[in-house]
Design a protein that fits this description.
Elements (H helix, E strand, L loop, with lengths): L2 H10 L3 E5 L2 H12 L4 E4 L3 H6 L1 H7 L3 E3 L9 H9 L3 E4 L3 E3 L4 E5 L3 H9 L2 E7 L3 E2 L2 H19 L5 H5 L14 E5 L8 E7 L6
Parallel strand pairs: 1-10, 2-3, 2-4, 4-7, 5-8, 7-10
Antiparallel strand pairs: 5-6, 6-9
Length: 202
């Protein structure tokens, strides 16, 4: 993989990419991009969890909207607050070498927020999530990321047991909506992309 080619393709598409060899420089950039204390929504993400980004920003005085911090009864309300925040920070399930983001969601709170709700989005990902094509992205999500997430979330799905997708119709399925982002939408001011030369998340 030619990382410079990936960065160039992202720029051509209208995204604002940054590449870092280590996580601390990447975290410092995220803090800088967000700036003064404001409202920040978060999508569910092991990458963000591994980087401890949420706690770092909360300690700096930002108001955090994340369903991971509230009870199940409060989640719908927090999803709405996240959609009205100034920034939204999330990882992505996969990024193609052509600069397209591929995401598959269960509840779709994440994909709807970073495609319409919030004007300033920050995607954070390790180089392990970069794939050659949309087809490879979907295969990676269904046969690698989704099974791991179903196990983590204690979902009763075939992939949680088998470790691969069988195109199930389970009530617990987390592969309900697929979104491919080719460019920032007309509703967005900035879509920043923070790529870290590490293996992060699923």
């Amino acid at each position: 993989m030619d990382i410079q080619n990936v960065l160039d393709n992202l720029k051509v598409r209208g995204f604002e990419p940054f590449y870092f060899e280590n996580r601390q420089d990447a975290i410092d950039k995220i803090v800088s991009l967000v700036g003064e204390p404001t409202t920040i929504g978060f999508g569910g993400s092991m990458t963000i969890h591994e980087l401890n980004v949420m706690d770092i920003l909360e300690e700096k005085g930002h108001k955090i909207y994340s369903h991971s911090k509230v009870s199940p009864e409060e989640r719908d309300h927090v999803y709405q607050l996240a959609q009205s925040a100034k920034f939204y920070i999330s990882s992505t399930n996969a990024l193609t070498e052509q600069g397209e983001f591929v995401n598959i969601d269960g509840a779709a709170n994440r994909v709807t927020t970073f495609t319409f709700g919030v004007k300033n989005v920050i995607f954070v990902l390790g180089t392990n999530k970069i794939v050659p094509s949309v087809t490879k992205a979907i295969d990676r999500i269904r046969n690698y990321a989704a099974p791991k997430n179903c196990v983590r979330l204690k979902k009763n799905t075939p992939c949680a047991t088998l470790g691969r997708c069988v195109n199930c119709n389970s009530d617990d399925c987390i592969c309900n909506t697929t979104v491919i982002s080719h460019h920032p939408t007309s509703k967005q001011d900035h879509v920043y992309v923070i790529i870290i030369n590490e293996e992060l998340g699923y």
